[in-house]
Amino acid sequence: MSVKALITCGLIYWLFSTIDGGSVVRIFSLIQPIQIIGAIGLHICVFFFGALRWWLLFKHMGISPRFLKALPSYYLGVFFNNVLPTGMGGDVIRTLHLNLRGLNAKTLIASAIADRAIGLTVMLAIAATSLSLSQDVNLSGYSKIFLLLTVLAAITGPWLLLTSRFINLVERLARKYQHTRVRRVLLEILSLCTSYRSAKKIILTAVGLSVIMQGLAIFVYYFLGRGIGIGLSLTTYFAVIPLVFVVASLPISIGGLGVREGVLVGLLVTVGADEQLAFALSLLYLLVLWTSSLPGAFVMLAAIRNKSRYYVT
């Protein structure tokens, strides 16, 4: 944790040391408060659709709490994604939060894995498709073919894990290691993941929700970028931002802080954006992200308050 904190501080220092603060302040004056509020509203919609996707996936497992019961747990995970040393730590928090309320841990973990796998697959497919279509990114014909093959692999790859042969292999291993604790639990979770083979409508719905989520999050960047004068096309944002999201989810810094902003600035400058504008956009998005994540903090405070009442009584 301390190493990641040092990395985070180092990245932030490096970013700010290369930027003219006065120029960034002047850029901030270009955007209207109503635009910030609109961007926050759009990002709240991103989290809402994300919670709906996860709810549909674990509902398939036989867990059927009301959506409004799952929403606070999801939002708690969103908040912790921004303060933990990985963009996936919030998955553990939201799973624990519902497990403490009586829901089965294995099914929650399996649904969280499926949730992440679908989101990552859609993200890579969007990035590869947009890179091949963007006019701001100059790619050779061979590169475009490679990207299209990447899209096909991203779409078909997960389905290979749901073939009858793979499922039979998991079942054989589960029987073989039924007397071991850790391997048995891991194989049981993997077996639960393979159960989505019979839930094609749910998977397709989850993919559709992922497209909406990614599209809205990318549009927030585009919306804020237009507000401060970045003239890149929406297609270019669709090509760049998924790569930013993937790198930010790696366990390098706290909540992707510094990594997300550095990668964004580097990629936008590569496709022709002004460095000062790109840095200002990274800060604006960070403001929107943190503000739209705040309801998760209220969920955490409510949980702490309820726990305190329990011990007092």
Secondary structure topology:
Layout: H1 2-17, H2 21-28, H3 33-59, H4 67-81, H5 89-99, H6 105-133, H7 141-160, H8 164-176, H9 182-194, H10 200-228, H11 234-248, H12 259-270, H13 275-312
Helix pairs in contact: 2-13, 3-4, 3-6, 3-10, 3-13, 4-5, 4-13, 5-6, 6-7, 6-9, 6-10, 6-11, 8-9, 10-11, 10-13, 11-12, 12-13
Describe the model.
It contains 13 helices and no strands. It is mainly alpha-helical. The longest helix is centred in the C-terminal third of the chain and has 38 residues. It starts with a helix and ends with a helix.
Task: Give the CA-CA distance, first to last residue.
Answer: 36 Å
Q: Classify the beta-strand content into a percent band.
A: under 5%
- Element order: H for helix, E for strand: HHHHHHHHHHHHH
Overall structural class, as computed from helix and strand content, comes to: mainly alpha
What overall geometry do the principal axes of the alpha carbons give? globular
Detail the poorly predicted runs.
Answer: 308-313
Quaternary? single chain
How many whole angstroms does the radius of gyration measure? 21 Å
Biggest sheet architecture: none
User: Level of helix content?
Assistant: over 70%
Average of pLDDT: 79
How many DSSP-defined strands?
0
The total count of helices amounts to: 13
